[in-house]
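Please check the following for our workbook:

***
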Amino acid sequence: MTYKLNLTIGDFSDDGHGKTQQVYLSSNYDRDYVRAAMWKALDKQGLTEFPCTDYEDNLLSQEQLRQLGIDKPLEAYESIYLTVDDGKLEMDSESITNLFIDFIQTHSPEIQLTVIKDDSEPIFFCGPDQNGRRSLGLGYGLFY
């Protein structure tokens, strides 16, 4: 069986800056199994949280990779936009997602996680629909 999991990057509880990005994962195990594997791995490594969890904490070091039990160079998480500078890598949603996947799969190799495209269609979107009508907004005034 394949499960579709939603990995929220950022302020998932919306009690701080409120910014998030949704990443969808395909998994051969359900959410509860993956969460339990994450907590078990954090406990095994003597950690209480994942890197980059504090406000404006977006840098990853080789030491943090070692603490996570990941045997990869920091450069493995570089991209065309992100490079290692002064021994640290500025993380973004893609790199932290890859780090999370590596962490889970390092400690629980039976779990297979793959980033997938969200194939749901938005009800509201910019521009006209097939009949030339523009989308309405819903609840914009609720947030200020």
Summary: The helical segments are 31-44, 62-68, 93-107.
